[in-house]
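G., the chain you wanted modeled:
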Amino acid sequence: MSTDRATLDSCAFADVDSAGHGHPGPFYQCDDGTLLCRWCFSDRRTEPRPDGLSLITAATVVPQAVSWLWQGRIPTAVLSLLVGPAGRGKTTLACELAARVSRGQLGRPPANVLIASTEDSIAHTLVPRLMAAGADLRLISFVSVYRDGIQEGLTLPDDVTRLEDAVAETGAALVVLDPVVGHLSGAIDSHKDHSVRRALGPLAMLADRTGAAVVGIGHLNKGASGDVLNRLGGSVGFGAAARSVLLFSDDPDDEESAERLLAHGKCNVGPHAPTLRFRVESRTVTFDGREIPTSGLVWLGEDTSSSIQEMLNRGAADPDRGTQDLAAAVILDALAERSRRWADLVELCKDEGASEHTARRARDQLKRSGSIEVKKSPVGWFWNLPMTSGQVADGQVEKVPLTGEFFPNQEQLAHPFGDGQVGAERSYSPLDAAADIVLEGFPGAEMMSSEEGLE
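Predicted structure as tokens:
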């Protein structure tokens, strides 16, 4: 095997490639000594490989050090998770990260970002937050899939091949799934470990083959565990599949504060990075003469005063109140995905240690408060969350207006991660080169140019 670093760091076909992908590692040494990335190693076969067991000799694999998209926190070529309580700013942080990737502010050249979201409106929420973060919107793309002429969200594992083609075509360095559970196929039960692994396994292989960093956003349940992997909404399979898990949550010492902490809950490819402190702040972006309110983050430095256990205890169920709160959280988490029969909810509660009697008491309390409801369908009774105003019903497609220009010449934007001062503003054009805006302070950043349902 060659020991020439110039050879080891690049694919033999990198200079003559027509597909436009970045030839990521790992690299494989052919019988003739040629070093190829996985893409070209696979393409070199003259005939399709038949179904069956695949063996890769260890001697043909070129060892490589871990590469980081965000140094010490989000590695490339693997699946990572960004988790935390709902409504705390996880999507805002993801938009800040996407913006920095698009402008080359994480020690890498500017790169494309793919975002698949099932919760937030593109025009009303995501694009304004990206604008407030200083993103180069020309390098940000939103992922959807057309089936039978109808535009739908990305589904895992069904659409992994399509997603991989999009990553290869755009050379995307970052793929964001918000939330990851919202993209699971209806055949996948997010509360069953083997089912979750069947969906996330192909996604992890996509990351490995393309070299892209894949980041899934997830919520926490209301359990009392001090282990972040046991607090993930759904199966522990989510945390097991991820190589790095970041917890984004409130400051446990100040519940009313707008400050947030970002802590490492798991990292299989390196040491845990120091905890960071951020502040969520309101911002306003201007487009076509209209002011659009949005939000952003200001980095406040490292934090050494709070442990991840204290962060997890914020909002956790009180053990002294028994398991009823836990059962209620399990029911709400499950119904947030889809309507379910009561028997299914009982099994999920039992999996978390709550009895059927406790689950029934939790259900009745949620029903009295209007948090859940039961409806009869042609195939039986189903429990579900009540639909709120503005929510899109099942089977309908939200039509998001994406016409018009998203690149105004001048805007007044709050300076994200700038000097830590609320309201600091800077005028800039998103079409300018990355060097036009120096957003300092982001850690790791280095600028570069029968009534079955009732019982």
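The chain is about 25% helix and 20% strand.

Shout if anything looks off.
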